[in-house]
Amino acid sequence: MADIEAKSTAILYEAFQSEASDIHFLPTSKGYLVHYRALGEIHAGETLKAEDGFRIVSYFKYACGMDIGERRKPQSKAISYDWQGNGYTLRFSTLPAKPSESLAIRISPRTTPYTLQSLSLFASDTRKFTELAHCQNGLVLFTGATGSGKTTSVYALLDYVQQSSTKMIVTIEDPIERPIEGMVQIEINEKAGITFATALKAVLRHDPDVIVIGEIRDRNTAELALQAATTGHLVIASLHAASASLAFARLAELGVNVRVECVRAVIHQKLAKVVSKNKRVAFFEWLLKDSLLKGADSNDKSGEIEALRAVRKAWAIGAIDRHSYNLLTDKGMTEVGSGYR
User: Fold this and answer.
1) Strands 169-173, 184-187: pairing kind
2) Counting CB atoms within 10 angstroms of each CB, which of 8, 32, 96, 287 has the fewest?
3) What CATH number does residue 56 fall under?
4) Where is it found, in Gene Ontology cellular component terms (predicted)?
């Protein structure tokens, strides 16, 4: 058991050192493949013997509180973990697969290096986020692929709200990825009957100013979110949609008729890898009222023709060359730190 614990810990440490966002244990007929995702790309690790891989998966299931004997149904759990003075939330997910169970571990730092000013290359994006933070009511929707940095952006927005006001903030998350002092944070627990919808209904009786919904998944949650947004609350939520403009179509699929006037913004986020640099930067597609804005306003000084071309290219291919990156940081008027994970 000690050897398995040591090996499991070594795999985690490897992920931390390489700044990976995910670890995958893939079962094959020859054993388990260990893969790491870093900067959005999968990197192959070692191959474990089938028996060792099985025992390591079982160890992680035990460590996070899963039922280690249940291999016929998917399971998910999250725990806090500290390494070299840094805190992480580890989200474990299992799937019943052939020839054996598969395990994925999502790694999320409990603190974010990002401020509202460092989220984007463009001052125009910073200005829009700042304006949203001062709104008293309305719905703000974040859309984007899994791993596109939506949660990072939401937390940066919440940090700014908390620092610039005395608003009561309540979040509903699955799981809580970053504990924040001074906010009420609720974690989804479907076995205990705590879903996004039931939690949101209770939150509305808790006198909140700002409500954060980790994900709108069903009609009930969507309708409650819209109700809150039209009754004096600022509601920030994420939604699975392929673009900002398709967010309304997604809500329609859930059976919800959206009053456009209550929507403050729909923000679609995408990450682009900076070629030759170990970082990724975020680009934002904005839907404000009836206007779809991408990257930067055409009237902004930061939106010169060459910079706009670089934005559109990065948005399209998911990568940006060094020349374009330098161009955007020169014209964007905001610094970007170490980059998104």
Assistant:
1) parallel
2) 96
3) 3.30.450.90
4) plasma membrane
What pLDDT, in 10s, does the model give residues 259-289? Answer: 888 899 999 999 888 776 677 888 999 988 5
Q: Which two tokens stand for residue 23?
A: 């670890």
Q: Is 284 exposed, middle or buried (CB count within 10 Å of its CB: 0-12, 13-18, 19+)? A: buried
User: pLDDT, tens digit, for every residue of 197-235?
Assistant: 999 999 999 999 999 999 999 999 999 999 999 999 999
CATH number at residue 287: 3.40.50.300
Q: How far apart are CA 11 and CA 4, in angstroms?
A: 11
Closest CA to 40 of 329, 325, 315, 278: 278
Tell me the DSSP string of 45-64. Answer: EEEE-HHHHHHHHHHHHHHT
- CA dihedral 162→165→166→167, nearest 10 degrees, is -70
Residues 56 and 38 in one domain: yes
Q: Where are the alpha helices (DSSP H) in 135-185?
A: 150-164
Short-list 193, 186, 151, CA closest to 340? 151
The answer to whether position 289 is within a domain reads yes
| DSSP state at residue 117 | G
Token pair 């940081």 in the structure block, residue: 329
117: left (phi over 0), alpha (psi -120 to 50) or beta: alpha
146 and 269 housed in the same domain: yes
Contact 193, 201 (CB under 8 A): no
In 10 A of CB 64, how many CB atoms?
Answer: 18
Total domains in the fold of the chain: 2
Q: Are residues 196 and 123 in the same domain?
A: yes
Residue span of the structural domain in which 185 resides: 116-332
- Boundary of a domain, candidates 109, 124, 146: 109
